[in-house]
């Protein structure tokens, strides 16, 4: 989608509602502005819900719970070279 926008007196632009709806921008949202060469890029700031991440970690931990958990000092005295001797 390509649109033509006019820059206002103080540098303001208006992002059309159809574009805001398309990318999920709502009033009060924060946008990230970056410049790449001679292009201006506006992106909605990604919001992270810490509770969702914690639940994903818990689910992952359950999936790998069958694996043996190492104990401190368990590999002391073992060298990598011993693994390849044959």
How does this structure look, described?
There is one protein chain. With 86 residues, the protein is of the alpha+beta class. It has three helices and two strands; from the N terminus they run αββαα. The protein has a two-stranded antiparallel ribbon with strand order 1-2. β1 and β2 form a beta hairpin.
Beta-strand content estimate? 5-15%
3D shape: elongated
Give the C-alpha Rg. 26 Å
Mean of the pLDDT scores?
A: 88
Strand element count = 2
Major sheet, described briefly? 2 strands, antiparallel
Tally of helical runs: 3
Residue share in helix: 25-40%
Instruction: Flag low-confidence runs.
Output: none
Return the structural class.
alpha+beta
Question: Order of strands across the widest beta sheet?
Answer: 1-2
Report how far apart the termini are.
63 Å
Which H/E pattern describes the elements?
A: HEEHH
Brief overview, please?
The chain is of the alpha+beta class.
Which descriptors would you attach to this protein?
single chain, 86 residues, alpha+beta, two-stranded antiparallel sheet, 3 helices, elongated
